[in-house]
Design brief:
alpha+beta, TIM Barrel, twelve-stranded antiparallel sheet, 11 helices, 24% strand
Length: 418
Amino acid sequence: MNLVYADEQGQLFDHPDWTGLGRGGDIVIELMEDELIPLPEGATLVGLPGTRPIGISPSGKMEMLPGSYQAVGALLPQGYTRLAIPGYVKADRTAVLPLFGYTAVVWKDGGFYVAAEQCDDPERWNPLNCDRGELNVKVEELLAKYPDNRLYKHLSNCALGYECLTASNTFLQRWEGAVPVSYSCNAGCFGCISEQPEDSAFPAPQTRMNFKPTVDELVEIMMEHLKQPQSIISFGQGCEGEPSTQAKIIVEAMKRVRQQTNLGYININTNAGLTDFMRAIVDAGLDLMRVSTISALDDHYNAYYKPRAYTLKNVEKSLRYAVDKGVYTSINYLIFPGVTDREEEMEAMIDFVRRTGLRLIQMRNLNIDPESYLNLIPKAQGEIYGMKQMLQIFREELPDVVIGSYTHVPPAELTRPR
């Protein structure tokens, strides 16, 4: 397993005499053969600016690679869960890495391998399956059809500028599409990708929407997308705040749409902290609900999300209410090697899943600067099991819960009656 590294110009190399390593949190670890898979299609290799690669040298010692080189990580497509972050140290401890989910990568058997496990079918979320030429045509068609719809204009930048696949699906009218609705949020997430304080060390990679859409604008997008039985339209995107803060227009739009069609599924991606608003959205006919969380431990959750006037208990109440009403529920579980696989984290999350009755855990690689995150959250209290064993434990302890990576249409027997 050769160490992979990059020079200052970003050219990639592998070192035949050095063994590549990974990290679980702040602990440098050796990578096992059963933790490695070939670099998936749609993955991207990137240099980690301001870092130095760590490997096992020919002398058998764990050392920094001499020279002006930087560590390399892989950014995985949806469907893959990382098992280790790259092995590196920061040359400048004050520097922060851009908000991406870096995965350990090595060179072996003539190709790049990553420390990851496939948890879902990556086909629908492979960037290579989004034809940019077709997308441009579809964007122009819908912008021309709805020239006054500000949401379509906003989503056109998300699709063409940020290459957001959910926004792209809205124009391609397939699979899961986006209908952002909120410019405000009831949390101050440390790793928010759409809004950061002016003095933040993290530049937000996206720009948050800055207007309140009308019910008509929502309905137009929803009706265009919900033309197939398997279509999903989703409130709650990376370019917006918390969608349930706009519960009034969501409820009205859902009611109007369901008066016209029973096709497809209406989903919300939410922190579920505003329990009363979530109940109203559920009662209006919600089909799917995905709740974002980083932990089922209050101190860890609060340190990252900085919730405003809600707690994890509110989140749990929202999930329980949705389940009782027949909504197919999941969590968007933001995972990080060396943290999610801690003993206390696993125990708390397994209990949380059992109490709420949710059906699907979407394992999503947390996009964050590792050092900043580790400095923010509580220290480990018990054993750290490793990500591969963590996944195995979840499957054994929660046999009726699907371990996946993204939102799915539920099985027919679990579909909410309309």
